[in-house]
Design a protein that fits this description.
The protein is about 40% helix and about 15% strand. By secondary structure, it is α+β, with helices and mostly antiparallel strands. Among the domains are: about 140 residues, Glucose Oxidase, domain 1; about 80 residues, Herpes Virus-1 (2-Layer Sandwich), CATH 3.30.40.10. The chain is rod-shaped, with a radius of gyration of 53 Å. The C terminus is likely disordered. GO terms for molecular function: zinc ion binding. It is found in: Membrane.
């Protein structure tokens, strides 16, 4: 999923969470309620709204009003003359769930609740506390009072409820509009920034390419140009071919000699150098800048060993001689007599013999040859 798709999905989840936490139903299903008296239809019907968690079923039946309380709360009873029947109740005084539960206990097939006085034809969503298995619909106050007056006049009135389609609350429309414009603005801003960055990168790359090409042109002009003549080793030889066009060299052709001493047809190598600026064979850069391959190859080579020469005469030689003497004749390694120690202490330490710098060489092989000659 792209970045914009993830952003849009996050916005939808956020909006749904806000709507759920604020107690707003996202979408409701509208109902078309029609009224008949006997076999006559009393004008066009009106649209109502299914309650939340209400079954979206079609229902029809005789309209029955509560006996004592028109609000249908507490211990309300119904005079049922035939079935199926639909309870018509006015909103107020108790929860929607209580009105529906009481009508359901009297075996109502559906419950129609009309809005409070002063609201006209306005309808609102019914927030129910739990899932119900009976159809519950909200209609406007004027429409509900007209049906109530017909029933109170002693007429048999029938209601038919048909599912119609989705209905959105105004708050949901505002949220969706805000989400749409916000997501659109963020997406446009993202793609605008991305486009500007790509254009800037492209222009910078083009500028660098033009600069490098101009530098390469100046470097190419400084390279050696050579015209092949008869008798040259490269003319007509199978061992010498142009690495660009894979063809041999002929008499009179002009070649370009690179700084690495490789040469190619001038017409072949110039376009290559303008684009790559390196030798096709050894990757030598004509601009004098190391390429990546050269840096890797130079970094991969190990440093030379530190070979130092130590002369045979000196402190090291003395220590080796003492060790050899001590191993060869243990008796000679015994401590000297007191007189000998006193004589040694009087004479003092012997200085090391002077060594001339000319006897030292950087290469041990030369020293070995010198020692060999001295021995002779």
């Amino acid at each position: 999923m792209s970045w914009s798709g993830r952003l849009f999905f996050a916005w939808v989840c956020l909006v749904a969470w806000v709507a759920e936490c604020s107690g707003l139903s996202v979408l409701y299903w509208s109902a078309y309620v029609s009224v008949t008296r006997g076999n006559l239809t009393t004008g066009p019907g009106e649209y109502g709204l299914y309650g939340r968690y209400s079954p979206l079923d079609r229902e029809s039946g005789l309209v029955v009003l509560p006996n004592e309380d028109p609000l249908g709360c507490n211990h309300t009873t119904y005079n049922i003359t035939q079935t199926p029947w639909i309870a018509l109740i006015r909103r107020g005084n108790c929860y929607f769930q209580d009105k529906i539960d009481i009508a359901k206990r009297h075996n109502a097939s559906a419950v129609v609740i009309y809005n409070i006085d002063g609201t006209g034809s306005e309808i609102s969503n019914m927030e129910l506390t739990g899932t119900i298995d009976i159809v519950a619909v909200m209609i406007g106050n004027i429409f509900g009072k007209n049906i109530t007056s017909l029933v109170q006049a002693g007429e048999e009135v029938f209601i038919t409820i048909n599912p119609h389609g989705f209905w959105s609350t105004p708050i949901w429309i505002y949220i969706m509009s805000f989400s749409f414009f916000a997501v659109t603005a963020v997406t446009l801003a993202y793609f605008t920034i991305l486009t500007v960055k790509r254009i800037h990168h492209y222009m910078t790359l083009r500028r660098e390419q033009r600069l490098l090409k101009s530098v390469a042109q100046r470097a190419i002009k400084k390279l050696q140009v050579r015209t092949l003549r008869k008798g040259d080793e490269e003319v007509g030889s199978d061992n010498h071919t142009c690495a660009v066009c894979i063809e041999g060299y002929k008499h009179g052709e002009v070649v370009l000699v690179l700084t690495c001493s490789h040469f190619f047809h001038k017409s072949c190598i110039e376009p290559w150098l303008l684009e790559h600026r390196t030798c096709p064979m050894c990757k030598c850069n004509i601009l004098g800048v190391k390429t990546v391959d050269e840096e890797v190859s130079s970094g991969a080579t190990s440093s030379p060993l530190d070979v130092r020469f130590y002369p045979e005469s000196g402190p090291g030689a003395l220590f080796d001689t003492l060790d050899e003497v001590s191993l060869a004749d243990p008796e000679e390694n015994s401590p000297p007599a007191p007189e000998t120690r006193q004589a040694l202490s009087l004479d003092g330490p012997k200085p090391w013999p002077h060594q001339d710098k000319d006897q030292f060489h950087d290469n041990p092989a030369f020293e070995g040859d010198t020692n060999h000659m001295d021995l002779k």
